[in-house]
Amino acid sequence: xxxxxxxxxxxxxxxxxxxxxxxxxxxxxxxxxxxxxxxxxxxxxxxxxxxxxxxxxxxxxxxxxxxxxxxxxxxxxxxxxxxxxxxxxxxxxxxxxxxxxxxxxxxxxxxxxxxxxxxxxxxxxxxxxxxxxxxxxxxxxxxxxxxxxxxxxxxxxxxxxxxxxxxxxxxxxxxxxxxxxxxxxxxxxxxxxxxxxxxxxxxxxxxxxxxxxxxxxxxxxxxxxxxxxxxxxxxxxxx
Amino acid sequence: xxxxxxxxxxxxxxxxxxxxxxxxxxxxxxxxxxxxxxxxxxxxxxxxxxxxxxxxxxxxxxxxxxxxxxxxxxxxxxxxxxxxxxxxxxxxxxxxxxxxxxxxxxxxxxxxxxxxxxxxxxxxxxxxxxxxxxxxxxxxxxxxxxxxxxxxxxxxxxxxxxxxxxxxxxxxxxxxxxxxxxxxxxxxxxxxxxxxxxxxxxxxxxxxxxxxxxxxxxxxxxxxxxxxxxxxxxxxxxxxxxxxxxxxxxxxxxxxxxxxxxxxxxxxxxxxxxxxxxxxxxxxxxxx
Lengths: 239, 288
Fold this sequence. Notes:
Helices cover 38% and strands 26% of the residues of chain A. Chain A contains 11 helices and 10 strands. Chain B has one domain (10-128, 143-284): ABC transporter involved in vitamin B12 uptake, BtuC (Orthogonal Bundle).
């Protein structure tokens, strides 16, 4: 994939905490409008990978490029401004603030007209949030909270959205309804990097997939290829 | 009946003077997770300064409010990046413990500073020493003014937090730091502003409290503990709860003071603190 056709590219990213190295030379690419899933068991390094991309953790070496521009080592708020939206694992909402507050905070760096437009779009994507707009986030159901987390990140008007395990703690039916918005984002030119533990869920939602194991990319391919690849299951079972 | 009303009225007004102590501490504790043990010493320094100010400048001591706020805002803005921000990267639990030790030391330095500059004796400010009689109730003018100004400033803080863009980012950062960072909020800046405003408002509270009660440099920790009791009672980060708690404590103190005596009144916050720590230790955790 050429430089211009790549939304997000990681080249040999090494990262960790203190003396512990979690990510070992991770490389991956995400094309414009693509949905790519990073699959991995608990502890494989998915959240660390997303934290490194989002600027919450400075990589020790390697490059992270957003449309060709190197963003590694920037602070998290600079990364957000560069165009990466981050839906952190565990959602991390502001329990005592309303749904509308979350959207306004997400869009606070946009011009007012753009913010209003994005807000309308969010209410179009998630009609239930319009009904609940004056409700405190802490009082919403798990599925609604996940929608708020995604909408808050989309309000930053990102070119790339990092979606870290949105399925955690949600009933399968709810997860499917959350994943239904992915094709709509694609239509708007937003590329999505998704982290997911569940193989079936992840592969059903994505165009391509990478399998992360002990901080290394061990397999990659199109979602349909990997769905039929026994090695994926073997990695999960530690064989 | 009239006695009960009088005690209630005194209590509400006393509680009003507490609101600002508690809310300024709440801001720092809620946003930064910093247990600011030096809070009372900022209050007392501002109070002692006000006495000096009123004695040397023949103008209304209430004019010391903006001066104390601006000076202590500046002090807070200088101290936070140097002393406290370096602790923030260490994880919430360690940051809480280390900030406790650090502000404990800072408290001693500030109290010593107060002793050196203003001396060790109790001082009070003779301002509005008369009373009003309204429907058989006796209302101290200084208590009324102190209470009204403190409550107005606390309301202003609450309005700023809930209805301005920057105020909202501050609330957001106190409710989920990761969430705030994920949408590009500069949490370092937010923490600096929260601490500076908290310390600035402690200064304003000190000016108002000296109108109501005598102070000495060594009474600093009484105010710190009072603030923590109110946060425990009202709920960390819960500004409405803390306002209600302030008024309730004022009423309880006024009733206990009448029924048992002044010593019991002043010891009440400490007894409550011990009770809260024993019965509901989770009240002191940061909001999840």
